[in-house]
Specification:
Blueprint: H1 3-7, H2 14-41, H3 47-74, H4 83-89, H5 102-127, H6 132-172
This protein binds fe (ii) ion (2 copies).
Length: 173
């Protein structure tokens, strides 16, 4: 890494930042795949709205993986080279979709986002005033993860409400 670029990191080892970023990198790939496959298998009421949301999130997670990889390289590190390592280093793991019902899929996805929010909050705290470039990147990603959680919860509420209204109107028949 360029010497001046490295000299602006203070009070934290670049190696430690790389280690933590690689854990986040593993999370992003697993999260990307989770959304990718959920979008394919999801079933149930209002599934088109879910498909559009899940596909958008998949693209965002892939973009996050790219942002994190670029920073790891800048810091003189190497992004995890083997997908097997994703499971070893991931903070949030991988929730295999077992129930394809839209509400179950959304619940899994919300849990994943909540874990991502916790992970990036820690990274923001850790790099604040120490590694401003990483701080900026993890702050941007954190904002996206907060938005992801919000979008999924809103969709979950819309569907729950819709089902409730449907049941109520059917009872009137
Ligand atoms: Fe992400
Ligand atoms: Fe996300």
């Amino acid at each position: 890494m360029a010497r001046v670029g490295k000299s602006i990191i203070k009070g934290i080892e670049a190696k430690e930042v790389v280690r933590l970023l690689n854990k986040a990198y593993a999370d992003e790939w697993l999260s990307f795949y989770q959304y990718y496959i959920e979008e394919k298998v999801v079933k149930g009421i209002m599934k088109d709205a879910a498909i559009a949301e899940l596909a958008q999130h998949a693209q965002d997670e892939l973009r996050h993986a790219d942002m994190v990889a670029q920073r790891i390289l800048q810091l003189g590190g190497t992004p995890l080279l083997n997908p097997k390592e994703w499971f070893v280093h991931s903070n949030c793991g991988y929730e295999e979709p077992k129930n394809f019902d839209i509400l179950a899929i959304l619940e899994d996805a919300i849990k994943g986002e909540q874990c991502a929010i916790r992970t990036y909050s820690e990274l923001v705290e850790l790099t604040r005033n120490k590694d401003i470039v990483t701080y900026d990147i993890v702050s941007q990603i954190l904002a996206d993860e907060v938005e992801h959680e919000e979008d999924l919860v809103a969709l979950q509420e819309d569907i729950t409400e819709f089902v409730k209204e449907l049941k109520a109107s059917m009872q009137k028949l």
